Target: HTH marR-type domain-containing protein
Amino acid sequence: MLLPLEKLGIIERSLDDADARARYASITPAGKNLLQDATASIEMKLEDIMPEGSEAELEKFTELLEKINS
Model:
């Protein structure tokens, strides 16, 4: 599941120096950029889908997306 993301440069995997059994996956700068672009795209689409939604509702949803993003 992670190999395709690693090949695309979205994540990188590393070993734990203290425990050879443990593996870590972390998002790369390119992965963060991709996530930010996707979030911006989703926000624009939401504005089209939810025009009747209040500004406060849209702002709250955006805050939740940003929280997930961090």
